[in-house]
């Protein structure tokens, strides 16, 4: 009797947990409206800066010699693509598309692969990727990026010594990253090995996060292929100076919010000590947690542990010999300027630039139909876009290079694949 009573209590507890997590399954329309109004504002600002690179800078008075309405090379392709796709979306919602097209669309949306087949294809895709990229790890990185001198110096003196060079000092404060780079150098005699492994693991994480969001195996493959076709990802996937450790840890922490909430914050703190910029991503993680399909108890645990991680990180930065407290220089006008960096840095990521707005519209339609995952994906996309303008506003110490947009590339790929989800 005691054993059966215990089992019944556990079952009741599990049922309550499920009810707790699934209550108010459909998100409030007001919340959806707020998230997507803010989200569309961020995306439209970004797209405008791509089509008219000088417009936002001229609007704040910094573009004396710029022509505000001079269109970029990508301007017309973006406008034409968006008009066509938005028109198709409108026709589809009004049920005026030809039946043959509707049937074809339904077949695409209903298509899926078994888990086994999908994983086999993933291994094949990763194998091709590794084969194509393996030669890059033999290249001496100083021949690719001059900043490698800074990393080399940091590897030589980490963790016991300090540096008068503020850029080397900044590298030394990123202990997780430095530990991995030093391990790569000492174990494999090649500093590029572990950065390459991190990029492979990032692709695997992208696959499983896409599947988790969409509940379809095929979408994971779409997300991986879209990430691989990104010029930004492919440029920095084997580079030690601009490695993907921080991206891997952050994206994996998002995945763990859904799968293993109790350990998500561990990987979040690993991302912070790989690259401090992920401190700015805490609000993104909290909002994703709020909309996650997990119990409220788990949500509270994730949020509290993430806040503790942030507090601990700030204390460590404050009392250790880091430069972060000395590089804060707030300039509000740079917030607007920060939006203009997306078009320049992602100028070779044509798929992302062409489909960013249509994907956002697709997420909005899914959110209106009750998909909390669509809201989370919109938050991830817009949050990662917003990080750069905020960083530009609070400091002039860092240069905005394309590698900072790798999280956006990953979340865009997952969001694009989510359009093909069952719901």
TrEMBL record:
Residues spanning the membrane: 30-52, 72-92, 113-132, 193-213, 264-288, 300-324, 344-365, 377-399, 405-421
Q: Where is the composition biased (Basic and acidic residues)?
A: 7-22
Can you name this protein? Glycosyltransferase RgtA/B/C/D-like domain-containing protein
Superkingdom of origin = Archaea
Cite the entry's keywords alphabetically.
Membrane, Transmembrane, Transmembrane helix
State whether keyword S-adenosyl-L-methionine applies.
Answer: no
Question: For the region Disordered, what residue ranges are annotated?
Answer: 1-22
Source species: uncultured marine thaumarchaeote KM3_74_G04
